[in-house]
Amino acid sequence: MRIRAARPEEATALSELALRSKGHWGYDEDFLARCREELTLQPEEVEQRRTAVVEHQGQVIGFVTVQGDPPDGELGMLFVDPPAIGSGIGRLLFEHALAVARAQGFTRLEIGADPYAEPFYRAMGATRLGTVPSGSIPGRDLPLMTIDPRRGGPSGPSEEKTRR
Q1: When comparing pLDDT for 13 and 162, which is higher?
Q2: What whole-number distance in Å separates Cα of residue 110 and Cα of residue 144?
Q3: How far apart are CA 150 and CA 148, in angstroms?
Q4: What is the largest CA-CA distance in the chain?
Q5: Minimum mean pLDDT among 94-103, 133-142, 151-160: which range?
Q6: Do the beta carbons of residue 146 and residue 111 sit within 8 Å?
Q7: Helix/strand/coil for 164
Q8: What 8-state DSSP symbol labels residue 93?
Q9: Within 13 Å and on the Cβ side, how many CA atoms surround 24?
């Protein structure tokens, strides 16, 4: 297994991987169709979003993005291909994202997490701040989490807030 920078020509395949990963949690086709735009990476965004992939035996099995400008950024996307979920790929990608964020001078990453991913991010040391509206589903709120990449643990205030 190796982590490497994603290539612009992989944007479509990464977008499809994101949808497969989201679908792993039992969301129906209508829900996934409404998420498609938000989960689509454009070729010109791959480098801008600091996209990295995990490759195993020549196959991309997960990817992560670290977005924004220091000091505050966002862990924008972290998706693992369903057959590899639970194998440590998510942890590997998360740790890579923290290393990238540290190297770039970020002191805080926010995560608008899928509710099914919240336990994973908590296990990685992220703290829930409150909620953030879904970019795909009107009226749906997602857990808003944060982490300080310099410490690899929780950052920011512990009170919950809602960002609208």
Answers
A1: 13
A2: 7
A3: 5
A4: 44
A5: 151-160
A6: yes
A7: coil
A8: H
A9: 18
**Which among 142, 116, 121, 120 is positioned nearest to 25, based on CA atoms?**
116
Q: Residue 158 pLDDT more than 80?
A: no
Q: Distances in Å between the alpha carbon of 59 and those of 3, 54, 84, 141?
A: 11, 8, 11, 33
DSSP string of 28-88, one letter each residue: -HHHHHHHTTTTPPPTTHHHHTT-EEEEETTEEEEEEEEEEETTEEEEEEEEE-GGGTTTT
pLDDT given at position 151: 85
Bridge-based pairing of strands 59-69 and 141-147 is unpaired
Q: Residue 86: name the closest of 21, 10, 27 by CA.
A: 21
Each residue's pLDDT tens digit, 17-70: 999 999 999 999 999 999 999 999 999 999 999 999 999 999 999 999 999 999
